[in-house]
Amino acid sequence: MATVPLVSDAAASPEVAAVFADIRETRGTEHINNFWRALAAADPALLAATWARLKAVMVEQREGGLDPLTKELVYLAVSMANGCDYCIHSHTAAARAKGASAAQLADLYAVLAMAVQTNALVTALGVPVDPGFQAEAD
Amino acid sequence: MATVPLVSDAAASPEVAAVFADIRETRGTEHINNFWRALAAADPALLAATWARLKAVMVEQREGGLDPLTKELVYLAVSMANGCDYCIHSHTAAARAKGASAAQLADLYAVLAMAVQTNALVTALGVPVDPGFQAEAD
Amino acid sequence: MATVPLVSDAAASPEVAAVFADIRETRGTEHINNFWRALAAADPALLAATWARLKAVMVEQREGGLDPLTKELVYLAVSMANGCDYCIHSHTAAARAKGASAAQLADLYAVLAMAVQTNALVTALGVPVDPGFQAEAD
Amino acid sequence: MATVPLVSDAAASPEVAAVFADIRETRGTEHINNFWRALAAADPALLAATWARLKAVMVEQREGGLDPLTKELVYLAVSMANGCDYCIHSHTAAARAKGASAAQLADLYAVLAMAVQTNALVTALGVPVDPGFQAEAD
Amino acid sequence: MATVPLVSDAAASPEVAAVFADIRETRGTEHINNFWRALAAADPALLAATWARLKAVMVEQREGGLDPLTKELVYLAVSMANGCDYCIHSHTAAARAKGASAAQLADLYAVLAMAVQTNALVTALGVPVDPGFQAEAD
Amino acid sequence: MATVPLVSDAAASPEVAAVFADIRETRGTEHINNFWRALAAADPALLAATWARLKAVMVEQREGGLDPLTKELVYLAVSMANGCDYCIHSHTAAARAKGASAAQLADLYAVLAMAVQTNALVTALGVPVDPGFQAEAD
């Protein structure tokens, strides 16, 4: 249940239609996710800026950077930690579409469970940072 | 500033000493992170259970699962999303030790920034899940 | 799907009925939000205390303080950051009822997206506070 | 304690130096916040993209949009809800620099306290959204 | 709407079936929560490890430790703070099954509301820890 | 490092001094936590309202409600889940002052670790609520 209407193709302004067209061309699919349709209603300028940045980060490939599947798994892990249901569904689907196997997703769940547990314990105990961790940053 | 003392080697009970010894052998280093020393003070049984599980998830390798660096990056991303400073420092150091390059960490930061932004917008707009995302789960 | 029943007018105890009556009079509407009906079931004393405080903060006007719409936008932004779906729906409706325009809400979404992104990067990088920021607090 | 070095003016690449110069010109101050210096070390491309977007959202003014102080208060409220200490310090300082009075900040604290409390109770009770809230979105 | 299928008894592998059998015997009920059925699909090894640990923490009793109802209330409070709807529903039901009265749950809601409010204000104000709090940890 | 000064006894207005006096009398100690001193600077009205409510919830005893130590443990668990360092320190100290044993705190840490782990997995898997959980609420 959205707080804004979802913008249909018919109702799209030229600015929105241009973004929708680029999403379709970049992804090679006719489907425009509800997220983009809601964002189009909320703020067309924010839609354009968000899509441009997402394309640069998730579609384009940086030399020596992470491969597309790893980036998708990181995106999914962050969405899980933030408890964003829609995002978990869309990025689980995206990870599978990019080739994530059941064993890889099983590892993702196992690492998530491990990380939140140690995150919480570290915070609960107020553990001071080991001096050695810092040295590597300088 | 911890809410419990950090258990030194000299003060370790046999149960705690056995865990410390296994950490040292598994990791090939004499250094025991402050996290384990604080957890030893809080609850030796929780120390043993947490280390055993962390070893199974992060050290052992599942057939067809994620490689050690990818698991480390997911762990780090979750720690960042949860805002755990100690964890961010320790797992940034661990990612570098496992070979994460500056370009790979740059991608991690870029994906994190992208994910939290779209997570927040999806939530703010109450976007309903696209029916197609669900089909792939069944 | 609530974990408690929603208290109807007919089922309201005198203590609850008095709060419902004050909500109706203060807001000039017969509608009592589900939140108040659920809170009435959970703890009538908490209902009374929460309504009294909400009225003092959101309805009454402090000299030199924030105007009602700005307070509503801050309330909404916090609800978005906390990922509370019900709260996002009720306070988006309230912001519109208090005169928030589409352009103002568009700015709210844009600032939210910006803030969560820089919040996450600051945390991920462990950025130390600039000395100058502190000076102004003293 | 940062996980990356803070890039000094002397160490800035031409790409980073150009961003630093634009920050200085836009803000009319010589001071470059530690956030930008850390981001420059983490990923110069992310620095450029983040600054460009922050300038568009926070410095430029949308017709009929929120005034600069209200945007700053929303930014601050989100940072508080996310528990980002650095961000709270920098945006409290920024809010004061943009004219926020003590009474206005007092209202911000009061609304924050109110919002997190009702957010938590709504979530704890699983309150279903009132049908009327949705009507306004369509 | 799950991102994985829920594993039925008929579809359970021997590894999964053994966990399901132990859940049934330990809890004295035929019902297996959807959580365990989803986890069985995601990662049978994670299912086994999570159930084993949950049984050790929540079912077994440590000498001098917390009683079962108090542990359940802590579990519920954490789930509320984390905004996990499913967990709130399952652990509210579990708390009632373990004897939590309406007055005890009312106190839980009241303490939750108090805690999140002071947590947020402390964070918003950047309050430094009183030296005395630390002394007790050493 | 606070964003507001800490109000000393000498600098306290009559309104603030009255709250400080009631804190001292209620708690039987001369020490006023930094939280109250910071809140006094931020908003004396919020200080008075927060203290009045905290006294009602945490000091006064509801018939059939939770005992003081259990309320303190719930407060602490919520503070841990919210990652509020100051609150963790102050409420760990308070729990010890109210008689929490090392074994009880060990159980608290163990339950926290369990809860955040299952919270995260439930969210990651999008587990639907079992119909039976709801029945008990009606």
Report the CATH superfamily of the largest domain in chain A: AhpD-like
Tally the helices of chain A: what do you get? Answer: 7
Fraction of residues in β-strands of chain A: under 5%
Q: What is the rounded distance between the termini of chain A?
A: 48 Å
If interface size is counted as residues with C-beta under 8 Å from the partner's C-beta, which chains form the largest one? A-B, 75 and 75 residues
Kindly state the mean pLDDT of chain A as a whole number? Answer: 95
Poorly predicted regions of chain A: none
Largest sheet of chain A: none
* Helix and strand run of chain A: HHHHHHH
> What percent of residues of chain A adopt helix (DSSP H or I)?
55-70%
Task: Identify the CATH architecture of the largest domain in chain A.
Answer: Up-down Bundle
Please identify the top-level CATH class of the largest domain in chain A.
Mainly Alpha
The beta-strand count of chain A equals 0
* Class by SSE composition of chain A: mainly alpha
Protein name (chains A, B, C, D, E, F): Carboxymuconolactone decarboxylase family protein
InterPro entries (chains A, B, C, D, E, F): AhpD-like, AhpD_core, CMD-like
Pfam families (chains A, B, C, D, E, F): CMD
